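Attaching the record inline, Q. Sequence:
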Amino acid sequence: MRITNSEPKRANPALLVALVVASLVMVTMYFRESDTGVLHGARKVTLAATAPLAQAGDTILSPFAAVGDWFAGLGISRSEIYALRTQNDDLRARLADLEEARQENERLRALVQFAEERKLTKLGARVIGRPTSAWEGVIVIDRGSADGVVRGMPVLAPQGLVGQIEEVSTNSSRVRLITDQESGVASMIQSTRAVGVVRGSIDRALSMDFVDKANVPKVGDVVITSGLGGVYPKGLVVGDIIDVDARRADLYPRIVVVSRVPVDQLEEVLVLLGPVTGNGAGAVE
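Structure, as predicted:
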């Protein structure tokens, strides 16, 4: 049996050279001849023959090109939306910061105005701790002995009396609220000048005890500090009377008082360093 190995046929180099030479000759003739030459005429005929095919190809491919452009535009729109959302989040964060600064400024202005109107020797402080349970009537402020705070100093808010410094450390202090069950404030009813003692309770309700029945107050009367005992200066607002029960069997009327100070929302306070001076301390609207 005879086995023959077939070798691949090699391209004829003479043919390749001839084609290259012919192409060069035709290109040279094309650029040298006039617009009415044979090669120019052949090119025009070829373009005229292939133009309908090219137009049909563009018509067929144009929907696909439009879809591609739509997807490309959609991708750009998504990136723009992401950028806008990021920018919107940044603007909202800045707006929240500005609103917080505005509210803090309003609170501080109210504190300063309150102190200046009553000529108080005061020290501003921030609330850094709140009651941890319904039975605890204590807040913590960021001022201590390093700021001149000592035990027993009254603590105020623009709405009225908050409480009294109970415990002092170097940079913070504990304030016993007037609503605490262990608190007692020597007070008087502003309209009748009847004196008594406002006490706190376990549920933070205030009651005014030891008021003479001859001077029974009415709902809406304002209660202020009397200055008796020297613990609190005279004229600080304690709260408003919301209920009076003058039963005959009781020695004193039962009087319920509500503080004007929103303890749960309190953020800044004033520590009273000196006595209240002038006649404006007891002025209450």
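The chain is about 35% helix and 25% strand. The two ends are 129 Å apart (CA to CA).

More tomorrow.
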